């Protein structure tokens, strides 16, 4: 009797039952709401603290009664607001990219910074500055997208030349090697074509000096990418359990991987074009989120976006207050968190955080 019932179940019925079983017992809706509140509070703190500390009264006046002759108002509207929005969008984009990459490769060590995607973007930006010194921001985004595709393509192509494919540790090593190669080429181009000063920002990573026009474009790309990833959340959940199971449940794996990879390239390329090489957000945040909310990607993706945004906004605050009036590179602060976490995962053989 059970066998007859099993045969009568469609692939969609099985997928629905599987998704219900994977749903975490924690109140994920409350976690999502709390994460949003924390992000909002961090963004408010980011508006206040910096080289020039603003009071809450100044912030309120600048928002409701902007005066172009008031220095505090100009600092807030022209510098702080674009900066905090950029940090939130970039952090969310990198975190979502990391979630998708780990689901596609079944590799807990996968992330844009480790898989050569970030370095590829920085390499093509260096090449763009060398060939076309007066790059517009839209052209910069295009070069960054191209570089992201180049870096990812180089890493995954190594899999065709290795026995038994790319294991998690092999994939991390391939990504590190490709990243080192592209970073070396970027440095060589920057020195030879005398664009090292332009490239220093992308090497360090950060959101200082971004303009609201650039943030608007990146925010639009980030929102589209996030919603596109949410449409694939059910498929990514099943795919993360293994390709054999996904294929048995009728998923079109090839198309899902192709669309997901395009989302990663778009999100990472956009993030690098505005913030440079900010690393390890796409590694740490997916593990943290899955540890809290479980394996249901319908929750993992949006909560990872909020966690990633919060982490980069917090790192940006730290970059301003650690050594005022000078700024610490944001990439350095994220690396202080990400490198020990990466070594912890590598020591476990790439089995993830249990």
Automatic annotation (TrEMBL):
Keywords: Cell membrane, Membrane, Transmembrane, Transmembrane helix, Transport. InterPro entries: ABC_BtuC-like, ABC_transptr_permease_BtuC. Its main location: membrane. It comes from the Bacteria. It is a multi-pass membrane protein. The chain crosses the membrane at residues 29-49, 84-104, 110-133, 140-161, 173-193, 214-233, 253-285, 297-322, 328-346. It is found in: Cell membrane. The keyword Membrane applies. Pfam families: FecCD. Signal peptide: none annotated. Belongs to the binding-protein-dependent transport system permease family. FecCD subfamily. This is Iron(3+)-hydroxamate import system permease protein FhuB. The lineage of its organism: Bacteria, Bacillati, Bacillota, Bacilli, Lactobacillales. The gene is fhuB.
């Amino acid at each position: 009797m059970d066998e007859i019932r099993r045969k009568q179940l469609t692939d969609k019925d099985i997928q629905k039952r599987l998704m219900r079983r994977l749903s975490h017992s924690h109140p994920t809706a409350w976690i999502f709401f709390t994460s949003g509140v924390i992000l909002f509070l961090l963004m408010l703190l980011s508006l206040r603290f910096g080289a020039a500390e603003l009071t809450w009264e100044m912030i309120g006046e600048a928002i409701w009664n902007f005066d172009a002759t008031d220095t505090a108002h100009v600092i807030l509207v022209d510098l702080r607001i674009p900066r905090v929005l950029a940090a939130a969008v970039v952090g969310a984009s990198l975190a979502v990219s990391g979630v998708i990459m780990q689901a596609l490769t079944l590799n807990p060590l996968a992330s844009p910074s480790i898989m050569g995607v970030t370095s590829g973007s920085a390499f093509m930006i260096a090449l763009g500055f060398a060939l076309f010194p007066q790059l517009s921001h839209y052209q910069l985004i295009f070069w960054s997208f191209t570089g992201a595709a180049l870096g990812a393509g180089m890493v995954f192509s190594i899999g065709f030349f290795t026995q038994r494919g790319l294991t998690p540790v092999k994939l991390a090593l391939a990504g590190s090697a490709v990243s080192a190669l592209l970073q070396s080429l970027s440095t060589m181009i920057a020195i030879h074509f005398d664009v090292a000063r332009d490239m220093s920002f992308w090497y360090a990573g950060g959101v200082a000096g971004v303009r609201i026009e650039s943030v608007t474009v990146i925010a639009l790309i980030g929102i589209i990418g996030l919603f596109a990833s949410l449409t694939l959340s059910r498929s990514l959940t099943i795919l993360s359990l293994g390709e054999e199971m996904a294929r048995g449940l009728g998923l079109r794996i090839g198309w899902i991987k192709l669309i997901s990879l395009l989302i990663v390239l778009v999100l990472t390329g956009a993030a690098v074009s505005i913030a440079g090489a900010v690393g390890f957000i796409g590694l740490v945040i997916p593990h943290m989120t899955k540890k809290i909310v479980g394996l249901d990607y319908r929750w993992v993706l949006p909560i990872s976006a909020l966690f990633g945004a919060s982490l980069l906004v917090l790192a940006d605050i730290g970059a301003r207050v650690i050594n005022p009036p000078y700024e610490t590179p944001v990439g350095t602060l994220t690396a202080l968190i990400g490198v020990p976490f990466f070594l912890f995962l590598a020591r476990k053989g790439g089995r993830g955080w249990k």
